[in-house]
Amino acid sequence: MNEKFIREALIELGRKDDLGKKELEQKNKCKKFCDFLFKLKNKLVFWRKK
Questions:
Q1: Which of 32, 35, 36, 39, CA to CA, is 20 to 30 A from 25?
Q2: What is the pTM of this model?
Q3: In the chain, domain spans
């Protein structure tokens, strides 16, 4: 019974780890996209001032 509990706990920890990695990847993608939009906005403002 104790072994089964340990196995299930390890599986659950593995799932949480996978979810954490996916969440982190998604946040990185969003950050890169936001940085891109910010740079694009700055370029447009710069060209508009010329």
A1: 39
A2: 0.57
A3: 1-50
